[in-house]
Fold this sequence. Notes:
Layout: H1 8-13, H2 20-30, H3 32-36, H4 45-62, H5 67-75, H6 79-87, E1 93-98, E2 101-107, E3 110-115, E4 118-124, E5 126-133, E6 136-141, E7 144-148, E8 152-161, E9 165-175, H7 176-179, E10 186-187
Antiparallel strand pairs: 1-6, 2-5, 3-4, 5-8, 6-7, 7-10, 8-9
Amino acid sequence: xxxxxxxxxxxxxxxxxPDAGDLANYLRSSGIDRIALNGAVAITEPLRTAALNEIAxxxxxxxxxxxxxxxxxxxxxxxxxxxxxxxxxHGGSERVPLYExxxxxxxxxxxxxxxxxxxxxxxxxxxxxxxxxxxxEATVQGGRxxxxxxxxxxATVSIGTPDLGPIITRDTTFPTARAVDLRRPITLVxxxxxxxxxxxxxxx
Length: 204
């Protein structure tokens, strides 16, 4: 059974693809078209509609972020996990309690809006992701994350612009272990390096 990827897109738009027109209409009510068409000489209704459709497709692509990867990137900087992973590199395993914590990820790409191969606007988009985890237990073995005990995660995803602020904000709660596929354990620290032979020491 394949574990479905929980993406930022799934949080904001749902697992099924929304109708492009519906998303474009939602964006129209936010006023984003006024910012997106800042380079247009004249704003006509056909131009506005075409620009909104393009922005809707771009936003759909921006949200294709695997939330499990966001979590793992945060855990790879979690001292408690890293210390346990370091101790387990030579064998054995440890169970590590992870207290309630939050991992955030933000970025601000720039969108260029083209209609009929002509650039009609350029603006920044902000994407903010927050993952709030309830207490759970992690199992590390051989320097790798191999198990996650029961515990829920609430994911909040927001997309907006610096001028308008948040346009769309959605959240959802799911079991953490469902989102992170550990059939292939995740390396937290690499294996211990083999010592270099001393000068004159024969290699075997």
